[in-house]
# Entry
Amino acid sequence: MYAANEGNLDGIQELLDSGVDVNFRDIDDRTALHIASCQGLTDVASLLLDKGAAVDPKDRWGSTVIKMGLRF
# Structure
């Protein structure tokens, strides 16, 4: 989540290569893709999507990545 928020592509890739679940959820049910979408980090979002990130999970407020305005 931190790496996604910071736009750290190398860090994200390293974490995913080590086996971290691309769809991990935090206490608010947000995924790294939710974070990337909120920050407008399309390069991070692209990497996460390429690695199998789900687009439709809802966070605790019912927001999905699409509702948050992810655009490519």
